[in-house]
Structures are given as structure tokens and as C-alpha cells.
Amino acid sequence: MSSAPSPSILLLDDDPDVGIAAQLLLQRRVGPVVCLRRPAELFAALDRLQPAVLLLDLNFGPGRTNGEQGLRLLAEVCARPTPPVVVVLTAYADIDLAVQAIKRGAFDFITKPWDNVRLIATCTEAVQRSQAMRDGQAAPTPKLTEPLRPLAEQERAAVMAAMADAQGNLSAAARALGLSRAALYRRLERYGL
To answer: What does pTM read for this prediction?
Structure first.
């Protein structure tokens, strides 16, 4: 009896640096990572590799930021008979885009640049979900390490952490959060920081 192959992660992102970073981070901690740069390669790779997880960028090509291309691909991937678990990635995140991705079948939504611990945890959970789905079992319930907190409280904590990491540098904190300086100012004012 042969052992099952290691779960694989397929990454589709047009930025080669993202692919290298994901491979370096995930290969030893989660599983093998195969990187693609062109959407046209995706479906042949899905058929050939049958990955457990697809990390899918939402924008391809210069100047594209609305996520339309990636959302279309997401819908096509999720309509397949045995789709991988999809985690979407984007540098141009907003709540509406995240909601659309989840509604179209994404397991989770990660913003770039990502937090390494969160990406590893998300990919690990996605691999577990994929294995459970392939075995015909119910997907494992994520283990909460802390109680659920309201979204506003989580956002306030993220803003405070980014400000602390940036040692008060507003531009650096805004970049880390994926916000403009003006958006960061509004959040600081909203939370009395």
C-alpha cells in the first residue's frame, strides 16, 4: 500500500517575488508549493497536480486593483467537480472584496503583505479541510485560541499593533495595514488613539 502524496499548494500570482516568499515560508511548514504566474495555466495545473489548496491572487497585470479577474477565476475553480480549498490573496483589500470572495467559495481572504503566522495557520487549516472533504468527512472545526472579539475591537488592536511595530511612524504603520495615511488617521481618531 503506497502512502498518499503530501498535500500540495498551488499559488497563482503574477508577481514572482510573492511565489518565492510563499515557497520559502510554506514548503517546510505546510507542504509543497507550486507557483504559476499566468491565469491561462491554472486549469491545466489543477488537473495535473490536484492540489489540496489554491492560493489565488485576485489581480493580474499592471493597474488592476478591483479583483474582478480573480473573482471570476474563483467562481470557475469552485464550480469544478473536486475543487481545491481556495484562499484568496490581494494587496488591494477591502471588506466588500473579501465578502464577495467568501460568497463565491473562498475559504479565507489574506491581504498582502501577509502575516507569516496567519498565512501558515490558514494554509494548514485549508489543507486539513481539503483532506477531510476528500475523505468524505465533515471539515474540522477550527480551534479557537482566544475568544471571538467584535470586529471593531480586532481592528483597534491591529491599528495599535501596527503603530507599535512602526514605532509611531504613521506612513510605515499605514503601509503595514494596507491603508492610506488618511484612512489610518480616520481609524486613529475613531478609536481615540
So the answer is: 0.68
Distance CA 65, CA 111 (A): 13
- Complete DSSP assignment for 36-54: E--GGGHHHHHHHH--SEE
| Bond preceding residue 113 cis, omega within 30 of 0 | yes
Phi/psi at 86 (5° precision):
-110, 130
Whether the Cβ atoms of residue 122 and residue 56 lie closer than 8 Å to each other: no
Gap between the Cα atoms of 59 and 78, Å rounded = 18
Instruction: Report d(CA 35, CA 54) in Å as an integer.
Output: 10
Please name which of 97, 106, 119, 100 lies closest in space to residue 78, comparing C-alpha atoms.
106
| Average pLDDT for 130-143 | 68
Q: pLDDT tens, 12-26?
A: 999 999 999 999 999
- H and E: helices and strands count for the chain: 8, 5
| The pLDDT of residue 149 | 57
Q: Which residues contact 55 (CB under 8 A, 6 or more apart)?
A: 9, 10, 11, 12, 13, 22, 87, 88, 89, 110, 123
Report the chain's mean pLDDT, rounded to a whole number: 84
